[in-house]
Design goal:
The protein is α/β, with parallel strands linked by helices. 40% of the residues lie in helices and 22% in strands. The structure holds zinc ion (ZN).
Length: 322
C-alpha cells in the first residue's frame, strides 16, 4: 500500500518540498529560494528535491501516492495548468502537471497555494469543524480562498478567491495584476514597505529608525513589529493602517458570504495582535451587523506548513482517497 505523499509549496520567495504520511504529518522537508531559479530550473529543482528526499528517507517511488503542488497564482487545477504567477516572472500557461509527471513518474496535482492552505487549515488547523471559511494570506502577494459547505469555491474559470485583488480605492496605485487600487497594492510586502519608508522619510524621531541604525533600507516588517510593540507611534500607525485596509476589504467579503471564520496566515500575519486588532476593528465597523457578529477572525494554525499539508491532501482527494 502506498503510504506517502509529496507536498510542494512554491512561494514568492521560498519553495518547500516535503514528504508526508497519509495523515498529514510531515516526515521530512527541504526548501530553497524561488528567486534563484528560472522556470525550467525551478521545475528541475523540485524534481531533484523529490528524488533527494525519497533517497534520504529510503522510500521507493512506488510507495508514494503522488505529488501535490501549490503555487501563488491562477491555476486550472483540473488540467494542472498554471495560467500565471502574479509575483514570479516567466510563468505563463505552463502545463506543470504534464511536465512534472514526465520528470518524476508520479501522479502530479497542481493548485493555487492559498486554496491548498485553506484545505490544510480546514482539515487540520484553525478551521477544524467549520464549514464556511475564508482564508487570506499576507506575504509578497495577498492570496485568498473561499470554502463553502466544506468545499473550495472555484468559480466559473476556477480562479475564485482573489481577495487581494479586490479594489479598495478606484483611484489607487497600480497593482502587479494590471489593475489599480487593489488590496495587494496597499498591503503586499513590497508595497507595505515602500509606504512605511515614505512615512519614515517625512517623519523624524521614529524609534524604528534608531533600531535600523538610521538606514531606511534595513526597515523590515519584523522591525516595524518590534518597534510597534515597544510603543513607537509611527510603527503602530503603519500596522493599524494596514489592518484598516485589510478589514475594509474583508468587511465586503463578510457581507457577501457570511462566513463563520476568517483564517489569516502568511509571513506578514506574524505581526500578531497589533495587526489583528486593527483588522477586527475595521471588520466590526464596516460589515453589516448580523454577518459581522457571526464571523471570527483568527491566525492560521499550521503556520508555514499549511500549504504543504494541503497540497498533500489534494493528492488524496484527486485519487479518491487512500
Ligand atoms: Zn491587483
Amino acid at each position: 500500500m502506498k503510504k506517502h505523499i509529496i507536498g510542494v509549496d512554491i512561494g514568492g520567495t521560498h519553495t518547500k518540498v516535503a514528504l508526508l504520511d497519509l495523515s498529514g504529518h510531515i516526515i521530512h522537508k527541504t526548501d530553497f529560494p524561488t528567486k534563484n531559479y528560472k522556470k525550467e530550473e525551478l521545475i528541475e529543482a523540485v524534481s531533484l528535491a523529490v528524488t533527494g528526499i525519497a533517497k534520504k528517507k529510503k522510500i521507493q517511488k512506488r510507495d508514494i501516492l503522488g505529488l501535490g503542488i501549490g503555487l501563488p497564482g491562477l491555476v486550472d487545477f483540473k488540467k494542472g495548468l498554471v495560467f500565471c504567477l502574479t509575483n514570479v516572472p516567466g510563468w505563463k500557461n505552463v502545463a506543470l502537471k504534464k511536465i512534472l509527471e514526465s520528470k518524476i513518474g508520479l501522479p502530479v496535482f497542481v493548485d493555487n497555494d492559498v486554496k491548498v492552505m485553506a484545505i490544510g487549515e480546514l482539515r487540520f488547523g484553525a478551521g477544524k469543524g467549520r464549514k464556511n471559511i475564508i482564508c487570506l494570506t499576507l506575504g509578497t502577494g495577498v492570496g485568498g480562498a473561499v470554502i463553502i459547505n466544506g468545499d473550495l469555491y472555484r468559480g466559473s474559470s476556477l480562479v475564485a478567491g482573489e481577495i487581494g485583488h479586490i479594489s479598495i480605492n478606484e483611484d489607487g496605485p497600480a497593482c502587479n495584476c494590471g489593475s489599480s487600487g487593489c488590496l495587494e497594492a496597499y498591503v503586499g510586502k513590497e508595497y507595505f514597505l515602500n509606504n512605511a519608508r515614505k512615512k519614515l522619510r517625512s517623519a523624524s524621531g521614529a524609534a524604528v529608525m534608531k533600531m535600523a541604525k538610521g538606514d531606511i533600507s534595513l526597515i523590515t516588517p519584523e522591525l516595524l513589529r518590534e518597534a510597534a510593540i515597544k510603543g513607537d507611534r509611527l510603527s503602530m500607525e503603519i500596522w493599524q493602517e494596514m489592518g484598516a485596509h485589510i478589514g475594509n476589504a474583508l468587511a465586503g467579503v463578510v457581507n457577501l458570504l457570511n462566513p463563520q471564520l476568517i483564517v489569516i496566515g502568511g509571513g506578514m500575519a506574524g505581526a500578531g495582535e497589533i495587526l489583528f486588532g486593527s483588522i477586527k476593528k475595521a471588520v466590526g465597523e464596516k460589515s453589516m451587523r448580523i454577518p459581522g457578529r457571526a464571523v471570527k477572525i483568527v491566525r492560521a494554525k499550521l503556520g508555514n506548513d499549511a500549504a504543504l499539508i494541503g497540497a498533500a491532501e489534494i493528492v488524496k482527494d484527486r485519487l479518491g482517497g487512500a
